Amino acid sequence: MSATRDEIKAIFGDLDEVKVSQILALGPTISELEEAAIWASGDGEVIGKGGRPPLSGKVADILEIIAIDEEDELPTAH
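The structure assignment produced for this chain is given below.
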């Protein structure tokens, strides 16, 4: 079953509505959202070493959407 808007916000916190809508359009499960959150927190390498396949599919797509937010928030060098 696909995750809801509220579940996305509960897992990822305060995402803007555009990003939430983009994630919703993917139709991810809660499990996929949770896995993406683990990767986003930097713990994905631990999962990879545990015998799970490399990052792909919806999880990778979710991370790509989240990464755009993070890149936009980084200060620019002058």
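Interim note for the steering committee: Residues 10 and 42 are 19 Å apart (CA to CA). Confidence is low (pLDDT under 50) at residues 71-77.
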